[in-house]
Amino acid sequence: MIPTQHLRIHQYAALQPGPKLIVTGAVHGNEIHGSVAMAEIMKQLDGGELTLLRGVLTLVPIVNPLAHTLNRREGDRNLNRNLRPPIVPQDYEDRIARQLCPLLAAHDGLLDLHSFQSQGQAFAMVGPRNNSGELEPFAHEAVESAVVARLGVGRIVEGWLSTYAEGIRRRQARASGGSRKAQLVTDPHYGVGTTEYMRSTGGWAITLECGQHLDPEGPSVARLAILRTLVHLGMLAPDAVEAFQPATPLEMLRLYDVIDRESMDDQFAREWKSFDPITKGELIGTRGSGEKVLAPSSGRIVFPNVKSQPGTEWFYLARESDRKLGWGDAE
């Protein structure tokens, strides 16, 4: 059994200065592709099969030990929402955040490894374009674009925090009750997870969704992504892993809405998979009240979750993005 009262943090410091990269897994306890991949990479580093050339590499294979031990997404709550250093910790995830947030802030970049509930292919998520706005000011679009283009996946998604902000506004409009859960899911900070927090400290961050939770190829997807990131940053020799050169242009999508489940009686019209195409007016599901939930425009459905709880995300909507990714240089 994994001890739940401490975090295991593995750090490799090269003798030459360079970037500081942190890689995290099992932020959601049952998402372990990254954890398996990191165990193999640590074995290779410890055995001399891989050599860190410069910089600092920090690996945290299991960020949420309680959720991992319970083999579920959360311990007391979703660690990857409303992430910030707590003034007074109120639950297990707050206590993890107290250690995790300063650890993230001590690094230049983050590769956060996840998996998802429904069937589908691996994909990655990037932050906003460079901007000086209030929601998520950012200045590292180039490095995120360069890293994500090399990970080995053919689909990239943007628009997370702006989509969440709109969803939160709707939640606030219908909120009732004063429970801690109700307060958390209607907090404007609720869309902030590991990558968003990392960007708020001045760093860059990529989320890699390595496939369905039980996909046997997931650990390989995670391992190759870690190695390719390290090679791009000049932290490993170029021959450490085969480079990824997409044969076709990467598919770039933008999230534009998140739809909450209102009742456990809300049901999908069919067994959706992430990134299934939808057409405007198509039936996505039916509320317990009988109200039909129709696609507002053509695009894709993302993260359809038959296990979501009332008041939390049921599915997301995405459409084609005009963003272009460049290969860039290491930072």
From TrEMBL:
Domain Succinylglutamate desuccinylase/Aspartoacylase catalytic: 17-118
InterPro entries: AstE_AspA_cat (IPR055438), N-alpha-Ac-DABA_deacetylase (IPR053138)
Record keywords, A-Z: Hydrolase, Metal-binding, Zinc
Domain of life per record: Bacteria
Pfam families on file: AstE_AspA_cat (PF24827)
Cofactor(s) required for function per UniProt: Zn(2+)
PANTHER family hit by this protein: BLL3975 PROTEIN
Name under which the protein is recorded: Succinylglutamate desuccinylase/aspartoacylase family protein
